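User: Please go through the entry that follows and flag anything odd:
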Amino acid sequence: MKNAFLITNRNVTGNGPGDSLVKTLAYFTAPVSKKLSDWSSWTKITGAEFRDQLMTETEAFPMLDAEHNEAERHLSLFIHGYNNSWDEAAQRYQQLIKTLYTGKDPLGVLVLVSWPSNGSVAGYLPDREDAREGAIILSELFVKLHDHVRSMQILASKTNDPSKLCRAKISVIAHSMGNYVMQKALAVTSKRLNNPSLITLIHQLVMVSADVDNDIFQRDQPEDSDGQLMANLCYRITAPYSGLDNVLGASAGLKHFGTRRLGRSGLADREAKKVHDNVWDHDVSDLIRDAKQYHSGLFETKLGLQFLEQVLRGVDRKHIV
């Protein structure tokens, strides 16, 4: 990974992304060697230039056969949570690049998706509104990704040339309320695409410390509910959870009466017949006990990062350690 990539719907000032929502996406790139929380490291580019630079990176990925599925490289998105200032989001992004997306066997390319967040606990409810509104704008990105992957599949089929297929799996790491952004963005995307069922848009969605309702993926939800639409667009959805996460324990009282947080309690009912079979949860309490902050513990501990990497690589849930 040579360059860092940023997509944002924050207002951009001379000091970096602000806290206000704008109606369009802006695109930036920076050398990964730079300090990414320093706004002077970033250069604004057009959407077309952004796409071309990403394609240059992903076209260098190796073509692998099916038996090496877990070694296939990723085009990943990282969506930060609420109560994250621009500096904090950029620092977390750079840490994930260093630990998972560079080195001897990197995962691929990671893109930071930054949405308006006030960076304070008092801003929780405004952040949630910005998350909902910003998700509509973000859905444009997922529609474009869908159309691009679909066009490559059609080209490979017409030419009988597997090398024309997309060389990257698309995956998403969402944290905290970033999962609410993802929830709403995928729901809008599915409706815009008329609920597609012939293509998997996202190979792995990892919902870290997810600040969403824990009954979202139950099969008894309406067919057009967010969870149903999300499950339809993803190959696998993983929900790490921990009762140690007091941030989510506090946030549960701010909305949706009587419904616990997915990232604190896990699925409401994980019985096989009652939840989508491509959705699973995992108690990560033992993996994050050494973290300074349990809410972001999966990013802060060696065992947490190992778990995250195995999930992204597509290791079967029964064999993840």
